[in-house]
Amino acid sequence: MHHRSWLDRIGDGVNILLLVLIAATMIVPFLYIFSVSFSSMEEYLRKDFIFWPEHWVTDAYRYILSNDKFIKSIFVTIFITVIGTLLNLAFTSTMAYALSKPFFGQRVLLFLVLFTFLFSAGIIPTYLIVKETMLLNTIWALIIPVLISPWNLIVFTQFFKNIPEELNEAALIDGAGPFTVFARIVLPLSKPALATFGLFYTVMHWNSYFTGMLYLSNPNLWPIQLLLRQIVVVNDTSSLQADQLANIQPPPAETTQMAAILLATIPILIVYPFLQRHFAKGVMIGSVKG
After folding, report:
1. Domain residue limits, the chain
2. Residues 201-227: what's their mean pLDDT?
3. Which residue spans traverse the membrane (predicted)?
C-alpha cells in the first residue's frame, strides 16, 4: 500500500484551502444578494451584512413580478436568446462546414474571417450599418449583427475537418446529397460542438445590454439586462414604477435591486446542467487533431 508523504498531504490541504476560498468569493456575494432580496428594510439598515434573513419578506419579488415592464423584458430576452442562439448555430455550423471542404477561394475567405476577428469596424460604423439596414430600434438589431462569431467559426471549421472524410464519402456513394450528409451524419456527430457553442451564444445573448443601449430607444424592447442596468447601475427604479399600479406600495430600492439581479441570473444558471454532459467534451474542440 502506497503511503503518501507529509509534503503531499500539505500540498493537498493548500489546494483544498485555495479552492474553498475561490468558491467563497463566488458564493458569498450570491448569498448576500439572495438574503437582501428577502429581507425587510429595517433589517437591511440595521445590519452591515445579512447572511440569512431573520424574517422572510417577498414584497420585492411580488412587486417586480407584477410589473409589466419587467415581465415584458424577460420575454424579449428569452426571444433574443432562443432565436438568436438557433440562428447563430445554424449560420456558424453551415459556414464552418463549407469552409472545412476544399474549394476555389477557400484561403481568401478564411483570411477575411480571420481579418474580422483581428480588426473590427468600431461602434460608429457598426451603428451606421444597423441604421442604414433599418434594424435600428428593432429586436433584430441585437441578433443579426452578431450572427457569426469569427472565433467560433474558426474552431468549428477545425472540428469539422477532424471528422473522417470516409463517412461523407460512404454516404455520397449511397446516394445521399450534401445537405443530407450534413444533416444526417455531420450534425449528430457535432453534438459536443453544438452544445458548447450554443452555451457560449446563449450566455452572450442573455447578458447582452450594450447593444441594446446603442440600438434601442424604445423601453418596451429593452432586454432584461438593460432594464437591470437602469435599476442597479443608474439606480432608476422609476423605470419599474412607471407602469406599476397605484395601489401597490413599492418596496425599498435596495431589495428591489437584489431581487431583480437574482431573477435575471437564475434562468441562465438553469441551462448549464442540461448541457454539462456535452460541454466537457466540447471544451477540447479543435485542440487535438486526428
Report:
1. 1-57, 60-282
2. 87
3. 12-34, 74-97, 109-129, 135-156, 194-216, 257-275
Q: Among the listed ranges 159-163, 168-172, 193-197, which one has the minimum average pLDDT value?
A: 168-172
Place of cell 490541504: 13
Q: What angle do CA 79, 82, 84 make, to 5 degrees?
A: 90
Model confidence, pTM? 0.79
Gap between the Cα atoms of 246 and 249, Å rounded: 8
Q: How far apart are CA 256 and CA 77, in angstroms?
A: 20
Judged by DSSP in three states, 93 sits in helix
Cβ partners under 8 Å of residue 18, min gap 6: none
Fold topology of 60-282: MetI-like fold (1.10.3720)
What HEC string does 7-36 produce? Answer: HHHHHHHHHHHHHHHHHHHHHHHHHHHHHH
